[in-house]
Design a protein that fits this description.
The complex is a heterodimer.
Chain A lengths: L8 H4 L10 H15 L9 H22 L1 H11 L14 H16 L6 H29 L2 H35 L1
Helix pairs in contact in A: 2-3, 3-4, 4-6, 4-7, 5-7, 6-7
Chain B lengths: L20 E5 L4 E8 L2 E4 L9 E2 L1 E3 L7 E2 L1 H5 L8 E3 L9 H7 L7 E2 L7 E4 L2 E3 L1 H20 L5 E6 L5 H13 L4 E6 H8 L8 E8 L4 E9 L2 E10 L4 H16 L7 H17 L5 E5 L9 E5 H26 L6 E7 L6 H11 L3 E2 L7 H13 L9 E3 L6 E5 L3 E6 L7 E7 L9 E7 L9 E8 L12 E7 L5 E7 L8 E5 L5 H10 L5 H34 L2 H18 L4 H32 L9
Parallel strand pairs in B: 1-11, 11-12, 13-18, 15-20, 18-19
Antiparallel strand pairs in B: 1-2, 2-3, 2-4, 5-6, 5-7, 8-9, 9-10, 13-14, 14-15, 16-17, 21-22, 21-24, 23-26, 24-25, 25-28, 26-27
Helix pairs in contact in B: 3-4, 5-10, 6-7, 6-8, 8-9, 12-13, 12-14, 13-14
Classes of the chains: A mainly alpha, B alpha+beta.
């Protein structure tokens, strides 16, 4: 894709290219940009203007989704730095981390038989969120250094964040299943 | 060309004519139309003063369809030709319809789309055509009241409506000859009706309990922008369940058995409903069985007994509320306003429990039956361009994930639920056989892993793939969801840049040709009437195009266009102005397209400039200090 002609997400939102994003500023820019280009502003316009508005609004939505999520933002920064980060085909060799993941997974599976299922699940969810946030802080530090070694390490940390993201999703699915059983 | 709607500081916009626009709440049981008149949004009554139009259509051979109260009155004597609750059939396949339809007496037959047709004495009709009859009736009411052709409407849909159901609703609008400016989610419309955009920023819950369905949405409001954060609901929970609970109590008290017959049961349900309604205003009600029914039983139903009967139903609605809060990532205490929608929210226990759950006093000032139509009218007024300085913006999400069928009947999510629209995602595919030139894709919507548990939206056939060895072709398929939540798909072969043609087989939508045929078939008006109406509609459209273009040219035509470009646009506009006064509908249409072509480059420049301006106020300098 000829992305070089378009501003990147950070430029589009008028933010410095950094992992540390001022969330309030990001939200403000998002609203301003959508006010300018949202298709609702062009319902009376011709087909070409409407198409263009939809394209621009889509770009802004994509940029916003990317910049507001630490995992997506980190990957995007690596992509901008020219590092191809496709974690579907990569695994970590950090055995300590893998052990912890296995232990968390077992804990999640054990929730079903816990005395208070919801409390047990909430404990795991809190732990997952805490670990995810700690890794995000680590990524912020690494990306600030901006040398090749730090970038590669940031990629490895992002992959660990992906593990926690998946656990988070599974925990929510389990919670929904429990609620369905109650209903 | 509504670029004129971007008001520039210090520049006065030329006064323009008020454009007629309306909001339509196309409901399962009742429908309404509302419009903004003299700055006030209100629902429009019919000639007898009724605001609610029963969503019932009766078909009779050789005659125009009956809509509303007349059709409802005929439902008992002519059940097979009288169609009620058609909203439940919109965008549904024959299997769903058989399931839903067990309560409806009709016979269904397969049509050209996946949506079945309903057999009537006047031929087979699609649910889209039935809905279009209701819309036409409301359109007529609005145009009679307002005195001219409507320039555009906003039609509301439940937030949980999937793509097929939205597409069917939009098709019904087109079929009714309406210019559908936007499909708006019902809860968002309710929030707009309360003018919450003019109040303080925060998080809003919209609790919508209707006759047969329940829906909860969480919205974030910041500086006039409504952003839907999450929605959830229960499609089988509503006021009808309360009626059944009360009917059960009456039968138990009066000693009536379950096998008393349909007629008796229906009358008891009516009594139960009346008792429920009475208890919204008084602490007890006397239920009296008519003399011809099971002796002369009468009994007193107190509010306490009634509350005990319906409590489990009210509690059941709180499950989806918890789920929506979790999807939105917030706590109950974060919600600062709760808006009540739907007739069933008049029940005191509902208000009480919702207030306790969200720790906020629910808003009930606007009639819960009309609040959605009123919000839709306000949005229609803005979209039509009557409020150029209005800052309000509504950002909706897709309620269910969009995915593709992969090997083994699994659904792979492409766009997750609660993604803000419009949005687009691209996915790459390759061929698995040497020389393969075609490939089929199956788009589904839903959260489940198995394709068979999701809703099938469309099957696409990619053709004209350049023949290559297996795995060499790289086909990039882009899925777009527009601001109405409707899906579009394009595909391109990457290695050679060939745009593959895509044959779309919409599972539920109607093709343009089908709409055209239905328009022809519509016996709604005599041919001359129809022609006169089309001409008027084209003229209104032409005026709109010209007005927008002139306003844009006046503001920046000199800066953005060179002499030749300006001359081409002026010539196209002058031609349109000439044919607009004639009677040739096709010539007007062609002239509008010519204006569109001539000005497309100009439109793009204007848009790019406004984005640059929006960005320019905040250059990177701000951060370099």
């Amino acid at each position: 894709m000829a992305t070089h002609s378009l501003p990147d997400h950070f430029e589009l939102f008028g933010l410095p290219r950094s992992f540390r994003v001022d969330r309030q500023r990001l939200d403000e820019r998002y609203r301003e940009l959508q006010r300018t280009v949202h298709p609702d502003r062009y319902v009376n316009a011709g087909d070409s203007a409407r198409r263009l508005a939809a394209q621009q609004a889509t770009r802004i939505n994509t940029g916003y989704q990317t910049l507001k999520d630490p995992l997506a933002r980190g990957r995007y920064l690596l992509e901008l730095a020219g590092i191809d980060h496709n974690d579907e085909h990569r695994t970590t060799r950090d055995t300590g981390f893998l052990m912890e993941q296995m232990e968390l997974r077992e804990a999640l599976a054990g929730v079903r038989t816990a005395a208070d299922r919801f409390a047990a699940l909430a404990d795991i969810q809190q732990r997952v969120v805490r670990e995810f946030d700690q890794l995000a802080t680590r990524v912020a530090d690494l990306l600030e250094r901006d040398d090749a070694g730090s970038l590669a390490e940031a990629g490895a940390v992002l992959m660990k964040m992906q593990f926690f993201r998946r656990l988070q999703q599974e925990a929510v699915e389990l919670e929904i299943a429990f609620e369905d059983e109650l209903a | 060309m509504a670029l004129l709607q971007i008001s520039e500081p210090g520049q006065t916009t030329a006064p323009h004519q008020h454009r007629l626009a309306a909001g339509i709440d196309l409901g399962t049981t009742n429908s309404l139309v509302a419009s903004v008149r003299s700055g006030v949004a209100e629902t429009l009554p019919d000639e007898t003063g009724e605001h609610l139009l029963p969503s019932v259509v009766r078909y009779r051979a050789g005659q125009a369809a009956q809509v509303g109260h007349a059709a409802l009155a005929a439902a008992v004597e002519d059940p097979l030709n009288t169609i009620a609750s058609v909203k439940r059939l919109m965008g549904r396949g024959i299997a769903d319809v058989r399931h839903i339809g067990s309560e409806l007496p009709h016979e269904y037959v397969a049509g050209s789309s996946a949506m079945p047709l309903i057999r009537t004495g006047a031929g087979d009709v699609s649910p889209v055509e039935v809905s279009a009859e209701i819309l036409r009736n409301l359109k007529q009411r609005a145009e009679d009241t307002l005195g001219d052709v409507l320039q555009g409407v906003v039609i509301t849909v439940p937030a949980y409506f999937d793509e097929a159901q939205r597409q069917a609703t939009k098709d019904a609008g087109r079929l009714a000859g309406l210019n559908v400016l936007r499909l708006l989610n019902e809860p968002t419309a309710a929030a707009v009706a309360y003018g919450l955009d003019r109040g303080e920023d925060g998080t809003i819950a919209i609790y919508d309990l209707g006759g047969g369905t329940f829906d909860i949405s969480i919205l974030r409001l910041q500086r006039g922008v409504f952003e839907v954060l999450a929605t959830a609901g229960d499609t089988a929970l509503g006021g009808d369940d309360m009626d059944r609970a009360v009917a059960g109590w009456i039968m138990q008290q009066a000693g009536i058995r379950d096998d008393a017959g349909r007629g008796v049961l229906r009358r008891i349900l009516q009594l139960a409903r009346a008792a429920k309604e009475a208890l919204t205003l008084q602490p007890e009600v006397t239920v009296q069985l008519p003399a011809d029914m099971h002796g002369e039983w009468s009994g007193v139903l107190t509010l306490d007994t009634f509350n005990a009967l319906i409590r489990p139903l009210v509690e059941k609605s709180l499950g989806p509320c918890r789920r929506a809060l979790r999807d939105a990532g917030i706590q109950t205490g974060d919600v600062h306003s709760v808006v009540m929608v739907g007739g069933s929210t008049r029940v005191p226990l509902v208000r009480e429990r919702v207030a306790a759950f969200f720790q906020a006093e629910p808003m009930v000032d606007i009639d819960p039956d009309r609040v959605v139509a009123i919000g839709a009218a306000i949005q229609a007024d803005i979209l039509a361009g009557n409020k150029p300085d209005e800052d309000m913006l509504l950002l909706d999400v897709i309620p269910l994930s969009l995915g593709l069928e992969t090997m083994g009947g699994l659904a792979e999510k492409i766009i997750p639920r609660n993604t803000t629209i419009p949005t687009a995602r691209a996915q790459e595919f390759t061929t698995f056989r040497d020389g393969q030139t075609a490939m089929s894709l199956h788009v589904v919507q839903g959260e489940r892993e198995l394709v068979e548990d999701c809703r099938s939206l469309a099957r696409f056939e990619l053709r004209d793939i350049p023949p290559m060895v297996a795995g060499a072709a790289r086909i990039r398929v882009t899925f777009q969801v527009d601001a109405d939540g409707l899906l579009g798909v394009t595909a391109e072969e990457q290695t050679r840049g060939v745009k593959s043609s895509i044959e779309i087989k919409p599972s539920y939508g109607l093709g343009d040709r089908e709409i055209e045929r239905m328009l022809q078939d519509s016996m709604h008006s005599a041919a001359e009437d129809r022609d006169a109406r089309r001409l008027r509609e084209e003229q209104v459209e032409a005026d709109r195009v010209l007005e927008a273009l002139h306003a844009a040219l006046a503001s920046d035509g000199d800066q953005l266009l060179d002499a030749a470009e300006r001359a081409a646009i002026d010539a196209a506009a002058a031609h349109l102005a000439r044919v607009r006064d004639g009677t040739d509908v096709r010539a007007i249409h062609a002239a509008m397209e010519a204006v569109e072509r001539a000005s497309s480059g100009y439109v793009e420049r204007r848009m790019n400039r406004s984005i640059r301006q929006a960005m320019a106020g905040h250059s990177l300098d701000e951060f370099s200090q």
